[in-house]
Amino acid sequence: MLPRASLVLLSLLLVVLAGCSPRNPIGGGEEEQLVEATCGATANSWPEVSSNHIGYEGNGASSGDFLWNFQLADQFGDTTCLSQFLGNVLIIDVSTRWCGPCNEAAEESPELWAQMQEIGPSWILTLMAQDAVGLPATSQDVVDWVDQYELEYPVLLDHNEQTREAWEVLSFPLFLFVAPTGEIVERIEQRPDDSDVLGFVQQAVEQWSGDLRPSE
């Protein structure tokens, strides 16, 4: 049997490698389904909802589901919807400011997103769930995160962690690899390698080519 000190160090190493457990665990009660039936014209700087996806709802947050639509405030305070980005390959993460792997992913994400866009129409979307001490994130946390890592893609405030609870996020970061149709191809409860992200984007561009938006 390993000494107690060795067990503690091993546990800490597993947290770093696999992701960070929530500091504010999900409580009991019925799962809240954050579904918006429609998300039409939007007053923000992101893409408009395409005609193919008006009325998109989704049905879950597990692999094989079509991700629930949502309406969350972005770094500019504007309402932003998942359905605006359908027709693109999507990498969606749920992150916190205190989580080391979340910060590492954000630091490398501008270069990663540029590589994704070279492959085909694609976006990164980040949902900010908690602040630096494990409390629900605020709009200032979102702005500070964007400024710290010079992000140009949407970073959304998960108000009172409602989306995190509905998606049953048990470890940070959570990454969803989402096809242009909204289907969740893979749900990963840790930070994936950049090569895995780019490999998925390449595969999705080829497999769902008929569902892609025209490149800008």
Number of strands: 7
Order of H and E elements: HEEEHEHEHEEH
- Helix content bin: 25-40%
Structural class: alpha/beta
Average pLDDT across residues? Answer: 86
Total of domains: 1
| CATH topology term | Glutaredoxin
Strand order, sheet with most strands:
5-4-3-6-7
Any idea what the CATH architecture is? 3-Layer(aba) Sandwich
Distance between the termini: 59 Å
Shape: globular
Instruction: Count up the helices.
Output: 5
Note the main sheet.
5 strands, mixed
Query: Oligomerization state of this entry?
Result: single chain
> What is the CA-atom radius of gyration, in angstroms?
17 Å
Low-confidence stretches: 4-18, 24-38
Please give the structural blueprint.
Layout: H1 4-18, E1 71-73, E2 79-81, E3 89-96, H2 100-119, E4 122-130, H3 139-149, E5 155-157, H4 162-166, E6 174-178, E7 184-188, H5 194-207
Parallel strand pairs: 3-4, 4-5
Antiparallel strand pairs: 1-2, 3-6, 6-7
Helix pairs in contact: 2-5
Can you tell me about this structure?
The protein is of the alpha/beta class. It has one domain (46-208): Glutaredoxin (3-Layer(aba) Sandwich), CATH 3.40.30. The chain has five helices and seven strands, in the order αβββαβαβαββα. It has helices spanning 4-18, 100-119, 139-149, 162-166, 194-207, and strands spanning 71-73, 79-81, 89-96, 122-130, 155-157, 174-178, 184-188. The strands form two sheets. It has a five-stranded mixed sheet. α3 (139-149) links the parallel β4 and β5. α2 (100-119) packs parallel to α5 (194-207). The longest helix has 20 residues, at 100-119. The model is unreliable at 4-18 and 24-38 (pLDDT under 50).
